[in-house]
C-alpha cells in the first residue's frame, strides 16, 4: 500500500517554499536612497577649508547574491575653471597635482568610515554579501595625473563591517578585510 500526501499538504508545502524564497533579505529602495543621500552629504561637508566637489549624485544598487554598490564622481579639490583660462603654468599644474596627491589618503579614510556606517545601516543586505563604494575621480585634461588614481573602489563583506562597528573587530583587522582597488 502506497501512502500519498494529500493535495492540500503538497500545495501548502509548495506555498511555504515560495514564501521562503520571497522572504530573501534585500535592502529596500528607501534604505538605498538614504545611503545615497548620506554619502552625498558626507562628501559635500567633508572639509570647509578645501571641500571635495561632488559631480552629480551618488547612485546605489543592490545585486542579489553580491551586495550593495554605491558610486559617485568627485573632484578631490576645487579648481577654478573658466573658458578664459586657456593655459596653466607648470607651477599651477604641479600645485594641483600635489594637493590632489595629499587628498587621496584622506578620501580613502573617508571611504572606510562610510563603508562601516553603510554596513551597520543596511540591514537588508545579508551578512555574507558585500558593501562596495566606488569613487571616480575627476581630472581636467591639463592635469598631471601621474600616480593619481582615476577610480578608487573599496568593499568588504557586510558581516565584517558590522563586527567593526559593534567593537568585535579592531581597525587593523578591518583594514585587512577591506579590498581596495585603484585604477
Outline the structure in words.
- 43% of the residues lie in helices and 19% in strands.
- The protein has 183 residues and is α+β, with helices and mostly antiparallel strands.
- It has one domain.
- Strands 1, 2, 3, 4, 5 and 6 form a six-stranded mixed beta sheet that branches.
- The longest helix is centred in the middle third of the chain and has 32 residues.
- The termini are far apart.
- About 7% of the residues have low confidence.
Percent helix, as a range, is 40-55%
Low-pLDDT parts are 10-22
**Total number of helical segments?**
5
State mean pLDDT (0 to 100 scale).
89
Indicate the proportion of strand residues.
Answer: 15-25%
Topology, number of strands: 6
Tell me the radius of gyration. Answer: 23 Å
**H/E series, N to C?**
HHEEEHEEHHE
Main sheet attributes: strand count, strand direction, barrel closure: 6 strands, mixed
Q: Globular, elongated, flat, extended or rod-shaped: what is the shape?
A: elongated
**By helix and strand content, what is the structural category?**
alpha+beta
Q: Distance between termini?
A: 69 Å
Number of domains: 1
What is this structure, in a nutshell?
With 183 residues, the protein is of the alpha+beta class. It has 5 helices and 6 strands.
Amino acid at each position: 500500500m502506497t501512502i500519498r500526501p494529500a493535495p492540500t499538504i503538497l500545495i501548502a508545502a509548495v506555498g511555504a517554499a515560495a514564501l521562503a524564497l520571497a522572504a530573501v533579505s534585500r535592502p529596500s529602495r528607501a534604505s538605498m536612497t538614504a545611503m545615497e543621500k548620506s554619502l552625498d552629504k558626507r562628501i559635500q561637508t567633508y572639509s570647509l577649508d578645501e571641500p571635495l566637489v561632488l559631480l552629480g549624485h551618488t547612485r546605489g544598487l543592490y545585486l542579489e547574491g553580491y551586495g550593495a554598490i554605491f558610486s559617485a564622481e568627485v573632484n578631490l579639490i576645487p579648481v577654478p575653471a573658466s573658458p578664459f583660462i586657456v593655459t596653466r603654468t607648470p607651477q599651477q599644474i604641479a600645485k594641483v597635482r600635489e594637493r590632489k596627491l595629499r587628498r587621496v589618503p584622506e578620501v580613502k579614510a573617508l571611504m572606510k568610515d562610510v563603508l562601516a556606517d553603510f554596513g551597520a545601516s543596511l540591514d537588508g543586505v545579508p551578512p555574507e554579501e558585500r558593501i562596495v563604494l566606488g569613487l571616480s575621480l575627476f581630472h581636467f585634461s591639463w592635469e598631471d595625473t601621474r600616480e593619481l588614481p582615476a577610480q578608487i573602489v573599496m568593499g568588504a563583506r557586510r558581516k565584517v563591517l558590522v563586527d567593526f562597528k559593534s567593537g568585535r573587530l579592531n581597525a587593523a583587522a578591518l583594514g585587512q578585510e577591506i579590498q581596495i582597488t585603484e585604477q
